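[job 0417] fold request received: Monovalent cation/H+ antiporter subunit A
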Amino acid sequence: MEYAPPMTGIEATTGLFALALPFIAAALAPMLTRLLKQHACWPLALAPALAFLFFLQALPAVAEGNVLLFGFDWIPSFDVRFSFRLDGLSSTFALLITGIGTLIVLYSGGYLAGHQDQGRFFSFILMFMGAMLGLVVADDLITLFVYWELTSITSFLLIGFDHHREAARRGAIQALVITGGGGLALLAGLIVIRELLGLSSMSDVLAAGDALRDSAFYVPILLLVLAGAFTKSAQMPFHVWLPNAMEAPTPVSAYLHSATMVKAGVYLLLRFHPALGDTTLWTTILPLFGSVTLVVGALLAIRASDIKITLAYTTVASLGLLVMLIGVGTEAAITAAVLYLIAHSLFKGGLFMVAGSIDHGAHTRQIDHLGGLGRAMPITFTAAMLCALSMGGITPFVGFLAKEEIYYALEHGDAYHIALMVAAIAGNALMFAAAFVVALKPFVGRMPETIHHPHEGAPTIWLGPLTLGVLGLLGALFYGAYHAYFSGPMASAAMGEPVAIEIGWVPHLNLAFMLSLLTIAFGIILYVFAARLRSGLADLLAAIGWGPDQGFDQAMRGLLRGAFAITNFLQSGRLDIYMTVTVILIIAALFGPMAYMDAFPAMPEFPSLAFYEWTVLGLVVLGIFAVVIANNRLTAIVSLGIQGFAVALIFMLLGAPDLSFTQFMVETLSVVILALVMTRLRLSAADHRPLRESLPDAVLAIAGGAGFGLFLLAVTQRPFDASLSDFFESYSYTIAHGRNIVNVILVDFRGIDTMGEIAVVMTAGLAILALIRVRVGRKGERYPDPTEQTP
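[job 0417] inference complete; emitting structure tokens
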């Protein structure tokens, strides 16, 4: 691959505009929907269509092996760029996202026609489109993470679109928790790559060769990246969010959870394969998780009775197959993964839209309640069969190319590859049966009496699945151009070296084709006995009982209970406990560092004081004595102000009247606030606690005072650094045009701090006002008893 010079001028601007188009359309969607109703889908679909055209015109350059870069500096001080990379991998993903996205916007216009929140839906799905598009073309690692998390947030909004239903809210929260948690792990991995290895962009990572594999941090980087990828791409046991995300409207299922979002993790693995792959950990972890996810997901697909849930579990299985192939990591395996990824996006997006069309026309998605719809919905039936034939791996469809390459990649005699081959055959056969359960059974046979007046949807409803089904056929028929512009560049980018793909739709009598025939035969048998198998699997799962989905609920309940217990422990509602803990921590913060660093100050010599200084010192001692012997709280509060007034006198006598005035005001305000608080609380007039209860508080008070005294002594015994004072003295007038240095510091140099202090004083004033306005409760109580029952 060759790096072309970074795009500049009109090319870079056009690229950034293409990435911004979905977000612009999302902002306009509510207004256009109010004006045009369901017809708003046509102008809104122009946004992804124009973006599609931009990536399409860049395809010839990308197909030649060029890497196109564009963007701009975002946070230069942290070496963060808003930069993007267009190569074979990101280009194909971008075309899938924008091309299928255009069809989904049109499909949504027909499917949600008349929905009161259609404008909000368009905004959400277009925002997601922009987030996913930015993710796959992002070059800077931080930019990639920002878009990664944005896909999780927008997915949460889409899954919970019907927020009045509890199931939708739960599915949205589950998806956000699982994928968001994986996103945090990914962020940690990207930070390690940036800060410890100095690689700030994907281009740097790929150009560094074996730097990640040879790093001492390879294991944590790999595990963190895999955590992000596995949660996003629904690998066992993180798969539970994807079937529950089917609570979203069908356009969401067709787009987010088949063609785009769930592929984000697979994209990340393909992107990092040249840098992280080809190690023992990589070739062990990925095939293990992927093969288990493939087989279990395919079995759960057969078990489901709802068409959307069936398709959701086949998506889980397909993602497992992709992760398994990426883990094998050979050129043939990566080629198979690329071919299957493109084929899956086409046939699964189409089948989900078919499921929505069936629900729209027959008003049910239950497989056992469907049949005979082929005569009433011939276009939908045609689209369904085109997509199912590709999913089943029948020639001449792109699914056939993928399946042949899968078996070719696993044609090795060792136990490792044999085990993966068995998993691939079993998973593909189960998905073959599931494909025709969805695409054939609802349309053949007798129509149940419960279905009334089934009908074909509007053109916007059947246009999407029919287009995707036809593309799955054309891609295989014109496989030369298909490989040259799509699968070949994509595989080359994932391998980090040129890859030539030649497989065509004409079968060859080899082991891969024999295994393909075996898969089809096994799939037909499973289709015939699908109802019986569904019942048996349902009984088995009912007997097992607990699963990851219930485990998620238990984990969330445990989290809430733990948070409640910790809150009750830390926030007991007793002010004395809060104050005691706070003072203990302050004392520890004062004495701890001095003890650890042996930095206790030397005892100073007692200075010779003037008579007025002795007078002030006497006032301080008198104030302390008055606080201790006071027989009621109000007298103690007033006596407490004596120390502050004494300090103000010192400031005045030493020639600082402004500081003295400030100290007088602060001390007066403190006494007033404390007095008002005490008069509003239900407290006895005096402290009548026994010595065993008051003594610990006295010890803490003495320790706190001693700690602050020692700390101030330690500070004053250090050499005085006059650089800050000299700075203010030199620049107060020349910069801030003020001769009063203190005023200039407060208003100019520390203006933000002063504003914060004013806000604090304002808040205290509002609190005082609230205390003054507190009304007397029943029976003359100043504060009603919260435990007393109100009649």
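[job 0417] notes: The longest strand covers residues 66-75. The chain has 32 helices and three strands.
[job 0417] exit 0
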